[in-house]
Structures are given as structure tokens and as C-alpha cells.
Amino acid sequence: MTVWDRPEPPTRPAPLDRERIVAAAIALADEGGLEAVSLRKVAARLDVGPMRLYGYISTKEELFDLMVDEVHAEILPEEPLGDWREVLRVRAHRTRQATLRHEWLADLLGGRPTLGPNALAVTEATLAALDGLADLDTVMRAVETVGAYFTGAIRREIANLRAERATGLSKRDWQRASGPHVMRMLATGRFPALAKAVHDGTEVDAEASFATGLDWVLDAVAAKLARPPA
Amino acid sequence: MTVWDRPEPPTRPAPLDRERIVAAAIALADEGGLEAVSLRKVAARLDVGPMRLYGYISTKEELFDLMVDEVHAEILPEEPLGDWREVLRVRAHRTRQATLRHEWLADLLGGRPTLGPNALAVTEATLAALDGLADLDTVMRAVETVGAYFTGAIRREIANLRAERATGLSKRDWQRASGPHVMRMLATGRFPALAKAVHDGTEVDAEASFATGLDWVLDAVAAKLARPPA
DNA sequence: ATTTTTCTGAGACACTGTATCGCAACAGTA
DNA sequence: TACTGTTGCGATACAGTGTCTCAGAAAAAT
Predict the structure, then answer these.
(1) pLDDT at B7 > cutoff 80
(2) Which of A47, A73, A141, B45 is the 20 to 30 A CA-CA neighbour of B149?
(3) CA A182, A208, B159, B217 torsion-angle sign
(4) pLDDT in tens, A18-47
(5) Of B111, B121, B216, which is closest to A220 when you measure between CB atoms?
(6) Which pLDDT value is given to residue B36?
(7) How far apart are the CA of B200 and the nearest CA of chain A, in angstroms?
């Protein structure tokens, strides 16, 4: 009975779990954007047949949900924080940073309810920080308002960033020269205020403007938390 | 030379322009969501070969851009408005209403810079309303902050609405019973604040909560416009 | 050792966005 | 009026996509 007489052991299928699948999908998305994520490519990256994935997820949307929740693990701060304001601000900034690391997150942010364990943990931490500072409705309004702000702001920032990258121009130059189109539009004289804004506007740091807008919204929340609602 | 001797005149291709294309695409999207919009279906609706469209747009993304700009025509109010606060509030509410009419807009909002003529007109009107009330940087921050808020809020509202529709439950019941999943998570005791919120939370009207959050943000803007920046 | 159950992956299906390119209808010229 | 150059249309093709079905192989149970 030499080695050659014995057949090769049957090729065991590559081990698999959701963690591995999500990691592969995130890697693909980080490299080529959300559109680079196809079930076939994810499967190929794991040396697995495409249909194998359907044992772990039942739809591509679910894969996206898992990806989003996975990133929320990066958003949840490891150590407890100070007052409610810091909690909200840190959450906003960490979400922004995570989105800069995983730009595809901008395409998914706010697109569907996030009910994964990590996302729930983030929400829990936020609510806990505001607990007792006002009645529940006010607290919810505060959390949602801040969330709406940073979701929208991050999406716009990434959208602009992509546009800049596509033309290879800075934001300001891009506005100035984004195709002849905008210039021509401005030249028509139909948009005087806009023209002035484009002409006189200084190029502002994206992070600074994000932070400033956030502070404004936090100020508003502070005002409402201060005195109980009518 | 009877009629039957003469051949039919050659079938002239159906007349076409961007307006028609965009209208067909919007109709499809209104009926079946963004994913129901395919170049083939748009073309079929216009009795036209799919490739014909490429004379008017050069990519599907461009079609989406045209659709978004078309809806912005509904957002621009026809008559001039009062003070800056009313202008911003009306813009937010009209954007929300337009998105409720065209839910697919939620998927596109904030996803890419909007440079079409109608979107520019909306921006122009907004900037004009704030012109002179503060230095340009502050004005821009105000417009962008409010825009970020309502963009994010609208997206989340539509996301929740779709989730409710998928389960056929009200928002509150949905949170309570969205699969066993959330309930099981809450039952673990790891999310006390969240559990309390779900348990004690009253069902709030979506429009009211949108309006309230908007007012908060507008209050914040008002505070910054009042006194010139440091 | 044999049966039952589970799981896997090859292939197929109905689509998608887009490139290519032959053909037909038009405009301009002789 | 005949011809030719140009344009623009659309059939066909290509390389993908998400997902279904199902024959067969491996694992578990008997």
C-alpha cells in the first residue's frame, strides 16, 4: 500500500463563516467600491462556489447589512466617555472617520434601518448618555436630529470627494471649472448669489466644516435639553 | 395607383428628447423603485431601441442625474417667500414632500453633487435668501448644515417607511416585533436604555418629528446668524 | 454496512449596462 | 434626377449580475 495506491483524501470544502464572508466583502468594497462587491467575487476570494454563500446569507442586501454592522464595531468607542455632548460628538466623528476608511459606507448610510448587534450597541451607548436629561421624546428627537445631520453631512462630503477625484481638482477649482457647465450656468447671470458664493468662497477644510455644523446642532440640542419641553 | 399599390411610408423613428426619456424613467421609478429603471425598460416604454438612449445620455448615472434635477423643479417654490427661515423651512419640507411622491429620490439624495439647472435654481434661491445676513462662510455653513439635516432625516424616514411596509406593521410595532431579532437582543439585557426607549416610546408622527428637528437646526442657525462670527 | 439527511457546486435563467458595426434614411452635390 | 457622403438607428454581442434548480457527493444516523 504505497502512497500512490491510496487516493487523495477528498478535498474538504474551505471553512466558512459569516465573519470570513463579510471580511472578504469589505475588502472588495474598500478596494473597488460597493459596485465591486459581487457574490461571485466574494466567493472567489474565499475559494468557494458562489452558491455556498446562500447558506450564510439569503440575499445580497443582507450581506450589505452585515457589512454595515461590522463597520459599526469600529464606531463604538472602547472606553466610556464623558457627558452627552461628547458622546454625540465622538459618535459623529467616529462615523465620519469610518466612512473615510470605507467610502462605500456613504452609499449605505441611512439607507436602511440598522439592527445589527454593533449598531444596536452604538445606539445603546448614545441613548444611555442622554438618559434622564429630558423626557424620552426629547431625547429621541435629539439623537435622531444629530444622526440625521451627520449622516447627511458625511454623504455629501464623500459625494464631493468623489467628484473632485473624478476631475482631479480641488473642491474650489472643481466648482469653478466643473466642466464648462457650471461656469456657463453662472455666466448666464441667473444665479447671482450662487456666482458670488463660488467666486468669493474660501476653500474650507471638510473636517472643520463638519465639526462646525455639528457644534451648531449640538448647541440646538443643548438648548432643548436645558429646559423641559412645554 | 390605389392605396394598396403604394407602400406604407417608412416608419419614422419615434420622436425623442431628454424630457421624454426622463419622464419615462421617473414613471418607472415611481412605480417600481429605482431598481425598476433599466435602460431597456425606459427604451421600451418609448417604443425605441435601447441604444437610442445613448444619443441623449452616455451612462445610466447621467439618467439618474437628470431624474434628480427634474424633481428639483417640484421643489423650487413658484412664488417668492418671506425671510430666510421660511425659505429654508419650505425648501426642507418641499424636498421631503417630493421624496414622498418619488421615494426613489431617497436613494439618490446626497449621493452625488447636484449641478442641474433646477437644482442650481434651488440653491440660488436659498443663498439669495441668506445673502447679507452674515459673512459668506457662515451663510454657506448654514445652508449646508440645514441641507445635511433634511437629507439625512428624509433618508431615514423613507428607510423606516420601507421597513414598515415590508413587515406590514406600524413603526412602533415594527420595533417591537421586527423579527424575533430585536426582541431577543433587548431581552439579553445588554441594551437597557434602548429597551426602555422601545418600551416607553410613543409613536410619533413622522412629519412632526421632521419639523421639530428642523426647527431645532433653524434655531441653531438663527443663533449664529444673529451675531457675526468671532 | 446501509440508509437517510445535509450540503455543495455546476449549470441555467433572466436580466443588466454598454460596445460594435452593418444598414437604411437623409442631405448635399453634380 | 442620380449619386454619394454622412448620420443615426438598432440588431447583435459580450461580459457580467443575483438567484434557482437539481444531480450527486459527503456526513450522519441507523
Answers:
(1) no
(2) A73
(3) negative
(4) 999 999 999 999 999 999 999 999 999 999
(5) B216
(6) 97
(7) 8
